[in-house]
Amino acid sequence: MTDSMTHQARVRTLRYEADGVISLELLPAPGSPAFEPFTPGAHIDVQLPNGLVRSYSLLNSPQEPQRYVIAVLLERQSRGGSRYIHEQLRVGYVLPISPPRNHFALRAGASRHVLLAGGIGVTPLLCMLRTLAAQNAEVDFFYCARSRAQAAFVAEIEAMAGERVRVHTHFDDVAGGPPNLAALLSGFDADTHFYACGPAPMLDGFVATCEQQGKPHAFIERFSAVEAPTEANGSYTVTLQRSGRTVSVQAGQSLLDALLDQGIGASFSCREGLCGACETRVISGQVAHHDSILTKAEREANRSMMVCVSHAAGEGLVLDL
User: Fold this and answer.
1) What are the backbone angles phi and psi of residue 137, rounded to the nearest 5°?
2) Does the CA dihedral 7-13-14-18 come out positive or negative?
3) How many domains is the chain built from?
4) Minimal CA–CA distance to 71: which of 51, 57, 88?
């Protein structure tokens, strides 16, 4: 169970957006503090009445922080989260939520932006598009889905097209298959920033294509873990600099569990290295990273880690706890 649920949100509306997709508009529940501001690419954790916690990207404009809007795809192999929302959640329900976190933020310095959405991966990119369009930035928005009927918000996105915002759609049932990413991503200069969110095969292809084409500014957000949570083969020791405590992590034990067993308050949520709730600053020591958040450069910098899935690569670590 996460300890990061600090707001109570009331479900104001449930709305059909596409085949298998509904949106939820959330407002602060009576007596709960106002929602915190957020930036494009941010997500929140939502605790459902059945006890499950799930992370969802905010898709509305950051200029309206008094409400949060998310969208949920009914997963074919739902583990209970999306199915509960689609089949049992009702208007008026009050849900504990976390403050917004952002590991998929817009970076500065781009001459042009390319946003690649695959299916429900449109949600954080729609928030980015709203912001970039308001800034009169130059944007190419590529929206890929199995069919138009499954493409949530497509009409709204197409209505935003203009001289500075170019919208491209690709529907597999019309095109006869998935998009050619190499062709789609070519022809942009080195100062272009690329953002992608969607199913794992598309993101893997996006990363590989950007590397092959020498695009240094490519960023992704995943909805599922790249790797299963991995524990260290041997034991190691972690020193907590602020508290002065030392924690022993046993072989086969996660660092998060070791901290919790010692009564150390560590924020966490997904336990899969996806949400960023447990990100902790590394003072010294090498980390074996197994999260799906940090970029290659951020891993090499070794300045932070997700304690739910990552562990020491040597005999010990010093953390900012």
Assistant:
1) -80, 160
2) negative
3) 3
4) 57
**Weakest mean pLDDT among 82-86, 196-200, 219-223:** 219-223
CA distance 253 to 235: 8
264 contacts 247 by C-beta, under 8 angstroms: yes
For residues 70 and 55, is the Cβ–Cβ distance under 8 A? no
Q: Between 51 and 24, where is the model more confident?
A: 24
> Looking at the structure, do residues 132 and 163 belong to the same domain, yes or no?
yes
pLDDT tier for residue 2 given thresholds of 50, 70 and 90: very low
Q: Are 273 and 290 in contact (CB under 8 A)?
A: yes
- Can you say how many angstroms the Cα of residue 288 is from the centroid of all Cα atoms in its chain? 21
* Unique residue bearing structure tokens 């689609």: 86
The whole-model pTM stands at 0.84
User: Structure tokens of 274?
Assistant: 């996806």
Q: Which residues contact 69 (CB under 8 A, 6 or more apart)?
A: 23, 24, 25, 26, 58, 59, 60
Same domain, 89 and 39: yes
- Region 280-306: mean pLDDT is 91
Q: Which two tokens stand for residue 26?
A: 């959330």
- Asked if residue 148 and residue 87 are part of one domain, the reply reads no
Is 105 part of any domain?
no
What pLDDT, in 10s, does the model give residues 106-143?
A: 999 999 999 999 999 999 999 999 999 999 999 999 99
Distance set, CA 268 to CA 106, 279, 280 (Å) = 24, 8, 11
CA–CA distance, 7 with 97 (Å, rounded to integer): 5
Helix and strand totals (H; E) in the chain: 8, 18
Q: Reduced to 3 states, what is the DSSP secondary structure of residue 102?
A: coil
Helix (H, G, I), strand (E, B) or coil at 122: helix
Q: Looking at the domain assignment, is residue 87 inside a domain?
A: yes
- Tell me which residue has tokens 């954080």: 124
For the stretch 85-103, pLDDT in tens is 999 999 999 999 999 999 9
- At residue 136, the pLDDT reads 96
241, 312: one domain: yes
